[in-house]
Amino acid sequence: MREQQLLSFVRLGKVLLIIVMVYLVIRLKAIWVPIFDLLFTAITPFAIAGFITYLLHPLIENIHERGIPRVLAILIIYIMFFGGIGYGLYKGIPLFIQQLRDLSENLPGLIETYKGWTKRIHNETSAWPEDIHERIETLLVQAEQSVGNLLTMILNSLKGFVNSAMVFALIPFIVFYMLKDIEQIKKAVWYLTPKRWRSRGIAFLKDVDESLGNYIRGQLFVCLIIGTIATVALWIAGMKYPLLLGIIIGVTNIIPYFGPIIGAVPAVILAATISIKMVMIVVVIIFVLQFLEGNILSPFIVGKSLHMHPLVIMFALFLGGEIGGIVGLILAVPFAAVLKVALLHVKAQFSNH
Fold first, then answer.
1. Any stretches that span the bilayer, and where are they (predicted)?
2. Taking the CA atoms of the chain, what radius of gyration do you get in angstroms?
């Protein structure tokens, strides 16, 4: 009886200690939040550089295995990758800024067109049952808020990118040294990892790489192709802001199932302000792009590297969208793939005991 009371006091003491610690963390927020922000700012370029290194490393190994010196292989892929990005930014940023400025100047006219649509919808549905009419009004308000939030997020992202331009300028140099000294980095991580975790950690990372690596590389390549084709097709069709819309279509295409729909909405809305004919042309372009992506590019380039059921992917997308919006949708499938590998390893570990 006395031992049970002692255990109860110990548990109560632990709970109180946790409550006190949480309270202190909250009260000291003014101290640790700036430190956290500073660490996040410092780590961000290294995290991005690490991701780029992860994407490029297999290509370098492939070239190196063909008898080309490793340093030369690194220089070839490095120059092709960052040279291509630099040339694209050099040619694309002025055009992107011009189209963004043009869009902002024409925004009042687009808003008037949008108001005309909503007024027409309001008048045509006024005779409908009150409940249905209110739901349509609610959907219109929610759509307006979603578009406003999306534009705000894009503008804030651009502003943050410009403010952090000097930090991001370091990424190519970090990537070069990471690619050059990848073996030393592996050895450092190996020695820093506790011995009892090493074999399991290597097996886990190998399975994650097999499940996720080819998917990410292939999906990014497919998105680049789809975005490029969309930009060219919209430009040939005479659509306004082809580069902006092509970038949106390419970026959102990384989201399985729902990405093409999300990417098509801005293009169709802008086309509707021009003519019905332009809407039909844009819809045909979107359908052709999705046929190309779903039946040729993705099966050939991405394949079925994830080994996940479509229902699991859809559930991950719904959950990611609810938690993190567009960013959550983009990260949902990679996170689900890593979680799947982690659960399989945990299951295997418990089965061995």
1. 12-32, 38-59, 71-90, 160-179, 220-237, 269-292, 312-339
2. 26
